[in-house]
Amino acid sequence: MGAEMKVVGVIGAGQMGAGIAQLAAVSGADVWILDKDVGALKNAKMSIYDSVQRFVSKGQLDKEVGNNAIARLQYTSNLEDLRSADIVIEAIVENEDVKKKLFAELDKIVKGSAILASNTSSISITRLATSTNRPHQVIGMHFMNPPPIMKLVEIIRGADTSDETFNATKKLAERFGKIVVCSKDYSGFIVNRILMPMINEAFHALYTGVATKEDIDAGMKLGTNQPMGPLQLADFIGLDVCLSIMKVLQAGLGDIKYAPCPLLVQYVDAGRLGKKRGIGVYNYRKSPKL
Ligand SMILES: NC(=O)c1ccc[n+]([C@@H]2O[C@H](COP(=O)([O-])OP(=O)(O)OC[C@H]3O[C@@H](n4cnc5c(N)ncnc54)[C@H](O)[C@@H]3O)[C@@H](O)[C@H]2O)c1
Fold first, then answer.
1. Which pTM was predicted?
2. Which residues does the UniProt site feature Important for catalytic activity point to (predicted)?
3. Fewest CB atoms within 10 Å of the CB: 139, 167, 241, 256?
């Protein structure tokens, strides 16, 4: 069924949606990319163009394939344009009510055979599926950031996701050149379930004065062969995102061990959200080091 997926819809033209749309177009699909914000569509168009050119100039993508991919992308703010999609991959804001409303609208617009996939990091696929009349065709397709570079796609099966939907989605992710892991629909899935408690524990180590931030990061980087330490990684992900995922783990799994570290909470309260704000655990501004 993956090979039959000729038309891919992507909703949300932000960081993730633009990358997913690029992958779909390079894999040979006709792609509709939708955002309610016209500025986001313009930015996505530029970032996809730049990214494709980078792959071409590095010799990682054939020039003609790249040009054809760019030509296959269509940009819209009108949901009706997604009518012909074989699969729609949603990558809008991480808000359950907003996503549910979108899924309910999409369910009425797209053809009966279409799959509705969500790139959510933490929201229950089973609950999203209840806003549609096709819960067996709703699935999680969790790309890592940035999608064109990162090899993994976590596929999440909701309580009612069918084998046919799973197989077609897996085939499509493989057509995008990705390696698939399959998770059941429990909070955090696989990667965030393990990564976020590790980051939270690094905050506890800092909070309780076990070591300096530099030594915590160097210890994990060099001692466990990770490309960067957990505190630096938290800054890259965004401390607000880390905090919100810890809250999802705590609420969804009901275990006190997932309680966010008070230091993480305090940094977020102080607006120290990480690299995107110029300051998180580390200071990325030019002013003196913290
Ligand atoms: N950023 C990451 O590292 C990452 C990694 C994996 C998964 N995710 C998930 O991917 C999704 C998108 O994240 P992002 O970082 O790309 O966000 P983003 O803020 O960069 O982009 C979201 C886009 O969605 C648009 N949007 C919001 N509501 C909309 C609606 N109702 N209809 C149409 N467009 C709408 C916004 O205008 C924006 O352009 C979230 O669910 C997030 O949890 C993010």
1. 0.92
2. 142
3. 256
